[in-house]
Write a structure and sequence with these properties.
mainly alpha, about 0% strand, globular
């Protein structure tokens, strides 16, 4: 954070916003761990609506740019159809999300490792490392039990990951507040 013109204000904003996001992640994470099927279905519906909105945007773009672009219309149709199918029957969407989340957890794990080694001299660096290890373990467990366990495993593991992301954010918030106090 060295080199920013207003480091004190930046530290205060980082600390405040990290604390808010951390608490939200903790709450959603706990809800996902206690009600995993609900979070799995909610995640499938979220993805369905994102695909439907993407279809509308792709269709709008194709209409405005080149109405004769059949590939643009095909893209909008595929997004829309996939989103509608997931919204009408979310369970296959949850199974697909199981594979997608396995990939996500691998990426989350490796990015957490990178963050941990960047933070390493700091007091709470090991929380990011722990988050990375847990994310990789979750990815492996999803792949082993797929597709049968996707209904509970998707919501439960997303909840665990969000919970630990919340812990990391709260730790970083505390560290930023401490740095701000030391600079005074």
């Amino acid at each position: 954070m060295i080199g920013y013109p207003n480091q004190k204000e930046l530290l205060k904003q980082f600390s405040k916003n990290s604390k808010i996001a951390g608490v939200i992640f903790l709450i959603i994470g706990l809800a996902g761990m206690f009600f995993p099927a609900f979070l799995s279905i909610a995640t499938a519906y979220f993805v369905a609506w994102m695909l439907i909105l993407s279809a509308l945007m792709a269709g709008y773009h194709t209409y405005k740019i080149d109405k004769k672009d059949w590939l643009g219309w095909l893209k909008a149709f595929v997004f829309g159809l996939t989103g509608i199918l997931i919204a009408l029957n979310p369970l296959p969407g949850v199974a697909a999300l199981g594979i997608i989340l396995a990939i996500f957890f691998f990426f989350d794990g490796f990015s957490s490792f990178a963050l941990a080694f960047e933070l390493k001299p700091q007091k709470w660096w090991w929380l990011s490392l722990l988050n990375g290890v847990l994310s990789v373990i979750l990815a492996i467990i999803i792949l082993v039990g797929w597709p049968f366990s996707s209904l509970w495993i998707v919501g439960f593991f997303v909840g665990i990951s969000l919970f630990f992301d919340g812990l990391v954010l709260l730790s970083l918030s505390s560290y930023a507040k401490k740095m701000d106090e030391e600079n005074n």
